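fwd from M.: "can u put these together and see what the complex looks like"

so here's what she sent:
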Amino acid sequence: MTVAAIELDHLHKRQGDFVLGPLTLEVPRGLVSALIGPNGAGKTTTLDLLMGMGQADGGQIRILGRDLAEHEVEIKRRTAYVGPEVSYQAWGTVGRAIDFVSGFFPDWDAARCERLVQEFGLKRGEKVSALSFGAKIKLALVMALAREAELMLLDEPTTGLDVGSRRELFAELLAFMKREDRTILISSHQLTDLERFADHYIIIDKGRLIAQGPMDALVDRYQRLDARLRREPPRLEGLRLLERQGDRARFLLDREVAGGLDLAAAGIEVIGEVPLTLEELYLALVQK
Amino acid sequence: MAETAPKLLLGLISPAAPGPLYQQIIEAVKREVASGRLAAGRPLPSFRSLAEELQVSLITVKRAYDELEREGIIYCRQGLGTFIAENGGATARRAQRELARDALRHAIALGREAGLGKKELVQLLRQELEFD
């Protein structure tokens, strides 16, 4: 039985000109899910709503089987968050920030915390304000990983990390995932960052869900078609024009929606069917 | 349990190597089982531990384990772990044999394209066997 770690039901929020949702999706428990989308897609807004930062205009959020609005304190106790909103500057040094934050969590593992501080090359005496962007992310990661959280939300943690640090990050996240009741939701605007580590993909763009599923299912679902156009092609659900030169066109076919479509009858003569890599698919899906 | 399972030495599993990662894991396990280095009944690490060890996604290892189980090389017992199947060695050797036969067929086809006759092909094979 797979229980979803996060369930969004018609989640909706308006922020100036930007509208998020309505988003309906599930983040599977026990796996690493990647929330992917270009800048401005709504990733941070979604994660903020999951952490109870900001108020949704509609819809429901259930986390670890409980309604977020009703059980926010309990959910936050079981959830760790790493993101740009968190600043530990007020406590001065790395060590003081750690001592302060650790006091909030009875499940804090001091030994693991010290090991992580060392591994990430942080020093307790260092001033938080003097840390590089990458080092600040690492400090936030230490705070998240030192606890026995069940759910970890990470908002673009790879931004500002060099290749070596990114590796350390993923090594720690896979170690975290050794317990099967744990779940990670990690966002990035770059698919390649997460491709080797994520089990489940949620692709959003302009506040809307574009596609979700494991890599194989996504790659199987879509296909690139190279075609010759006999006449002006009609607008068809599940068929998206990617490129066109005269009577030659390249389409993205969503087989789930348009699998049984009679393309020849629509004047589209298929010349070639090309499978896509996940990255090509992503770029095609979020293409302007 | 998984924690007591000995470390697997699977050799290089890398996105730079040919074939998808899960396929590389399948082949590496089969190699170990076929050679007898992994004997029947021996526990394998949990798929979560192996994912951490190899630094690949959980689903990659899960898929490899599922496939190996389908082929009868390993078996999973809920709550106990994953083990090498009783006939795992024989099954893996049979699979390796198929691969070897396919490779030979391919070599023969290449040889024919190069204009080699049966006699020359046999000679070539003999030569290689002697070098081995």
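replying to her w this: Chain A has ten helices and 14 strands.
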